[in-house]
Design a protein that fits this description.
By secondary structure, this protein is of the alpha/beta class. The protein has helices at residues 98-101, 113-126, 146-149, 152-160, 197-203, 210-222, 240-254, 274-281, 304-322, 335-342, 349-363, 375-378, and strands spanning 35-39, 42-46, 52-58, 65-67, 81-83, 86-87, 92-93, 107-110, 132-135, 165-171, 188-193, 204-205, 226-234, 260-267, 269-271, 292-294, 299-302, 328-330. The chain has one domain (24-364): pyruvate-formate lyase- activating enzyme. The strands form 4 sheets. An 8-stranded mixed β-sheet has the order 4-5-9-10-11-13-14-18. The chain has a 5-stranded mixed β-sheet with strand order 1-2-3-8-6, with no helix packed on it. Strand 13 (226-234), helix 7 and strand 14 (260-267) form a beta-alpha-beta unit. The radius of gyration is 20 Å and the shape is globular.
Amino acid sequence: MIDKIPEINLSKNKRQKKMSGTSGSKDSKVKKESFTTQETGHLSYAVNKEIKQTIVLTKSRGQIFKPCPGTSDAYLCCNYWVLNQLMNCPFQCSYCILQYYLKTPNLTVYTDTDRLIQQIQERMALEPKRFFRIGTGELADSLALNEKVHVAEPLIRFAAKTPLMLLELKTKSSNIESLLREKHGGKTVLAWSINPEDIVLREEHGTASLTQRLKAIEKASLAGYKLAFHFDPILYYPDWKEGYTETIQKLFDVAPVSSIAWISMGSLRFPLEMKEKIKSRFPESHLTDAEMIRGMDGKLRYFKPLRIYLYKYIYGLLRYYGGHDLFIYFCMEDRETWQAVMGKAPGSNGELDFWFANHLYHHFPGLFPEPPVLEDYLFFSTPRNRNHD
């Protein structure tokens, strides 16, 4: 274990670490008191008293199962796969790129789950020795609407019986009650975006509070789900050290290390054109006050020395409270940053993909029929980012 965290005394409030732990066919069952039918396939959903948006229930067109696009070859991508069954989000996070990337206020749900599952099966069949990590949270919050539209459950059942895959459902909500009854077979990862409570209140409008998320995490763990956490975006603000320290202490009070599949870190980043939109939509936000620079993917980011400073501190906290068996990785960072913070860096996206598989093989015995082999992960022909045709 790491004995010391730089620049802050953790001994006063140190808590005992928990090192062991333990088909879209339901769309018609949406409760009338929560939704108002406007026209066929359209439902009105109130995020809070001020915000109402429209859910569009429809069938998918084209390819919905795709590799995570990443942003640039300059930053490492983990070869994650995304199923874009959900489009857009009812939450109003000030930093969310969806407000820039998606041009419609509608919340779209593709209900033809069998067709989407077929796309997963066809792709996995092309690489039968690879382990696939699949998520639904790229263009939406995976669970924000699920207690009403119930599209996650068929995917959980599919993952439970499918070898060489894990399903990740990523959320800022606490909407997991219906999932607690599912026979998931340990093949679904319930994942939460994590930030200090003051950031949740100031920048993550309409989402579950940190306390509510922590309660949901504890329930998910007791129900046998694997867990994952995403410290992304990490934000720099006056009390950031105290905020992240307290948050990580609380997280490991409820999350057994033995249940954690992975933890990611990433810093604030967004397209240059989004800066004015943030100022307009969220005038009380201080996100745009920080000095930032255009990264190699064209997005605004904190200067690299500041990013490394933030990462080192939070990485130290995660190791201090969670130990050395945690799998921690960066989302969209370069090799120099990996090396500066962790003392190692994958040589390619494929090698990072293998690192995931190798960790999961050892951390969760029985998840793989045989040990993963590096060569099965190094070669991949599908373009990974939006800079490719």
